[in-house]
Known about the structure:
With 367 residues, the protein is α/β, with parallel strands linked by helices. It folds into 2 domains: 27-220, Rossmann fold; 228-364, no CATH class.
Amino acid sequence: MEQQIRCIGCGAIIQSEDETKPGYAPKSVLEKEEVICQRCFRLKHYNEVQDVELTDDDFLKILHSIGQSEALVVKIVDIFDFNGSWLPGLHRFVANNPILLVGNKADLLPKSVKYPKLIHWMAQMANDLGLKPVDICLVSAVKGIGIAKAMEAIEKHRLGKNVYVVGCTNVGKSTFINRIIQETTGKGNVITTSYFPGTTLDIIEIPLDDGAALYDTPGIINHHQMAHFVDKKDLKIITPKREIHPKVYQLNEQQTLFFGGLARLDYIKGGRRSFVCYFANELPIHRTKLEKADALYAKQFGELLSPPSKHYIDQFPPLVAHTFTIKERKTDIVFSGLGWVTCNEPGAQVVAYAPKGVDILIRKSLI
Ligand code: GDP
């Protein structure tokens, strides 16, 4: 059997097959006496972290090891895909360590929404999901908004201890850490990576100035995200890049909205009312009569009703219906990873459709 080579930075087993997995290094460097993986290489030479993906089992191992040390855990969620990027059960594994909750991608929400209100909402959602964070921050890692405050919160709550940054893939964890590195290191002040003692968990270490360290953990993949059901081109359409402009539809009973061909909302009963749609601005929304909806979908899926684009519809899972009665005012019907529809008044009966495997849930309105 071939001998396993480990990265001298993070301890990951070196492999040359998959760039998105821990321990990737191009074949050309395998001959060297000391091999460093691409992720550690980037940190060492460019002061930049790169995200890699991890299996669920390995992620549990990492959480377990965090639980055994004293540290501050920084949990990053994507505010646009709050529930889909949540990492359930994190607090059970990290034991008594404090958790700082960071909502990223705040730039995507309408500017009219005030941060204190969003933070209050995050606190309520966290509480409902069983997490009591020591603090909550809202940032835009891409725009650099809220980063200074988040860094202050990290300093305040870590009390000289190490910091672990955790999150699903795509929440913007790397962008966030790279921002922090940018703000804390001067030019030429190159970070070194070093083996995380005692384990081989593919965690990379970013030294803080008091001898403690910030650890970048690989991102866990959320298998229920819409992102796994569309191709790269379509993913670009459904991933919002700019501030979302909500679209308001006044619907009569027995009307249907299609969100591309990816999701659908049937308004069954409850009188004429408005539905506010929060999706990427580029995602087309079509309104039709409920009685015509099935035929339209059969005929126009991948055409008028796209994404998904035509060449991808064979691989697309069938839409599954979820029936809801909206009981509270200001309720969001969330299509995990795609967006949500806000229903302002109680009493509406709806049927929401998403591809098999993608969650649909009801929550208190974010906005
Ligand atoms: P990671 O997988 O969690 O490390 O996520 P990345 O840092 O690689 O970011 C994933 C995607 O989200 C990229 O396309 C980023 O450009 C984007 N992204 C990261 N931070 C933000 C943000 O603050 N706002 C917006 N709109 N996009 C972001």
